């Protein structure tokens, strides 16, 4: 069962994470769902000639791991995702292991809104995506 | 082949779109890639008891259609996705037809950065996601 | 992050669950991975003439939800799956919402082995799969 | 078309198999269907620090190949899968070639039930999963 913390049980500084090694199939199937077949993602031959030298993972796939933490760990269950800002800071390659981390930085009790600092980092600890998000709890 | 417009060829007010009817398999496979099994997305029995009455599509799946427009239509090809802000304005259900639309609202020639107003709307024209994005062209 | 309870923290009677509505795409993609294209699973026309009247979900797909609880909830993390017995008690149809539940029924401290009663039930509370499992903790 | 042998045509000692090299995408998509994102399966960085040194295949994915033999080879067609016991004997890694083999060890004519010894072995002949299963024929 996914977690489901109430507004009052969540504290400033609380963190949660979700980790995954991004496979080629993740990138290809994500491309197939959203329709983003930019050659930087699915054309190895083209990608060799780019500054990155190989295929890169869709930024929004990396960013989506943040929403996974919200949906399954903190706050989980009965939450409404209000907004998300993401800054793409570094490329992600197939085979990188990503960890999405969310941290409570502000609570607004009047509407039960929680502000999170969100980031995704790779196996070397390098931040690849970061930004803020707002979540509303209905309990 | 995906489009690949240069910075100078892109004008303020220019728009592009990408549309798709979101299937149950889109939602399920997206859940499987990112690991977000919140019951609002994959549990029909649970969802019937929520205010939405049925399973809703992951907000980041809807938002990812915006990046598809950037990757394949405008500007396409050789672009660097710098940042994306999204506000989730209305629920999206399985079977909804979404259109992601991007519109050039500002050009910053010194670094070849383009600012877009981005939104996703459903088959009734209702905006479900919106916000701004920044893209840097390398040509 | 998935749970990771130690042997000593787990008590007799402790339970955990994982729930999901089984989609047609779940059944089809599972069929594609394992190669089980029995017409009862993927041939709607054939299935109409069987006693079940429609396509049924692979028993091992339903049973696999039990291992999901072990892998992500209880005990989670550092566990070794020793054995699983399953008895298939009732058919599962596309669109059914399944809940896999595991319950600790015995602890064997000498080897840190935990015996679970495991079952999967549908949205009507009907048990579709049950049996026992053994898990060894390495902490 | 899948096979469909009648109870009387099946003899003690009869065997059938199903083989597949397990890909990373098999493991990832299986994880996505059942929701089992234990880091031993999808986190290469984490797995390097475990005794296995790399990501392992879900035990129930290996075990599911047994049911594929039942569904497509022996007895195939009109069969009811009554029960399956599995003992997980050795780890399976991405890239291993698995063969599931079933062997008839007992026939119970009064209810047309067939008992099988079932096992899965890898490309080195090592048994990774074994146990017994019961199948009922309706012809």
Question: How would you characterize this protein structure?
Answer:
4 copies of one chain form a homotetramer. Chain A is an alpha+beta fold. Chain A has one domain (7-137): Thiol Ester Dehydrase, Chain A (Roll), CATH 3.10.129. In chain A, 24% of the residues lie in helices and 35% in strands. Chain A is built from 4 helices and 5 strands; from the N terminus they run βααααββββ. The first copy, chain A, has a 5-stranded antiparallel sheet with strand order 1-3-4-5-2, covered by helices on one side. In chain A, a hairpin with a 4-residue loop joins strand 3 (97-108) and strand 4 (113-121). Chains in contact: A-B, A-C, A-D, B-C, B-D, C-D. Strand 2 of chain A pairs antiparallel with strand 2 of chain B, so a sheet runs across the interface.
Please describe the topology of this protein:
The structure is a homotetramer of 139-residue chains.
Chain A lengths: L14 E7 L2 H11 L4 H4 L1 H4 L11 H14 L6 E10 L8 E12 L4 E9 L5 E11 L2
Antiparallel strand pairs in A: 1-3, 2-5, 3-4, 4-5
């Amino acid at each position: 069962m996914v977690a489901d913390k109430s507004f009052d049980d969540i504290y400033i500084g609380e963190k949660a994470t979700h980790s995954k090694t991004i496979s080629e199939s993740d990138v290809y199937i994500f491309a197939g769902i959203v329709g983003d077949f930019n050659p930087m993602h699915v054309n190895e031959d083209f990608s060799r000639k780019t500054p990155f030298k190989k295929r890169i993972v869709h930024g929004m796939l990396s960013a989506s791991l943040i929403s996974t933490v919200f949906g399954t760990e903190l706050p989980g269950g009965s939450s409404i995702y209000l907004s998300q800002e993401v800054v793409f800071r570094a490329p992600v390659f197939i085979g990188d292991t990503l960890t999405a981390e969310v941290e409570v930085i502000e609570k607004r009790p009047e509407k039960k809104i929680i502000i999170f600092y969100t980031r995704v980092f790779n196996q070397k600890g390098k931040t690849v995506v970061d930004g803020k998000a707002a979540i509303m709890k209905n309990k």
